[in-house]
Specification:
284 residues, alpha+beta, four-stranded antiparallel β-sheet, 6 strands
């Protein structure tokens, strides 16, 4: 089944690439450049990305070629199916779905974490170690409230690998993303406030307030690009399957491997039967 799905995707890709114009190919190149730039930013360096690619058995050239193909086939579909929304479509969606564009209140903090569990096994540390960590966090709280640089303390003592190199700073977050105890303490703080020791399943935290962003509705201009991408994707999900099947039939693609041919025919039969099943009355 996996082979059949992979083969179906490969056939679709080749048929779409055959229809690519020079403009589609240029769009594919640009999409690939943008995607690779984002990936490099995530990994932090070309060396780190190369290490990951080597571990997965892929080269940078293969990654780029894959990205170019994906960008080009997407451009073909958008052009052929006229899938890009109009400005009127986008504005209509924005006006009719206000809840989609509500940005919740967010809080921005630094924190110091002393772990009370083993990060590899996620089992609690022995009681004597937990007591020692509690004594240490109490001491750090006194030092922070006495005026020592909180970021420097976090860099030196925090055991949160994701934030300690950043002085304990976390990206601003809304409610519902952090441990309940941590979230409650963070949202209760005000300007320059430092929390009491907060205990979570991870360990002991001290939180320093950096700022708060009130809830608001994002302006149309702020979301227009993402909204265009979203509506384009929705149109493609709706229109692309039938279009690709039409291309396959017109190309008279023949699958020679007997097992893959049988799997392909079974998948086509299931797809053809799906609309009838969906249309069946609920009481049948």
């Amino acid at each position: 089944q996996f082979k059949q799905m992979a083969l179906s995707d490969l056939i679709a890709t080749q048929l779409l690439l055959q229809k690519a114009t020079d403009a589609d190919k240029a769009t594919g190149q640009k999409e690939a450049d943008d995607q690779i730039a984002k990936i490099l930013k995530q990994f932090g360096s070309q060396e780190a990305l190369d290490t990951q690619l080597t571990a997965s058995g892929k080269t940078m050239a293969e990654l780029r070629a894959q990205a170019v193909k994906a960008g080009t086939t997407s451009a073909v579909l958008i052009r052929e199916l006229n899938a890009a929304p109009t400005a009127a479509d986008m504005k209509k969606y924005y006006d009719e779905h206000p809840a989609d564009f509500e940005q919740p209140e967010k809080v921005h903090v630094r924190h110091i974490l002393l772990l009370t569990m083993d990060p590899s096994t996620r089992t609690p540390l022995p009681d004597d170690q937990i007591k020692a960590k509690r004594k240490q966090i109490d001491d750090l709280l006194k030092r922070a409230r006495a005026g020592e640089d909180f970021a420097a303390l976090a860099t030196k003592y925090s055991e949160d690998p994701g934030s300690k190199e950043n002085g304990g700073e976390l990206p601003a977050f809304p409610r519902g993303q952090m441990m309940p105890e941590f979230e409650a303490a963070a949202f209760a703080l005000s300007t320059n406030g430092i929390s009491d020791v907060v205990t979570t399943a991870y360990g002991f935290h001290i939180i320093k307030f950096l700022g708060k962003t009130p809830a608001k509705k994002l302006e149309y201009s702020e979301v227009a690009d993402n909204l265009k991408d979203y509506l384009t994707l929705q149109n493609l999900k709706k229109l692309a399957p039938a279009y690709v099947e039409k291309l396959k039939k017109a190309a008279k693609v023949e699958i020679l491997d007997p097992d893959l041919k049988a799997a392909s025919e079974a998948a086509e039969a299931a797809a053809a039967a799906a609309p009838a099943a969906d249309a069946m009355p609920a009481d049948q």
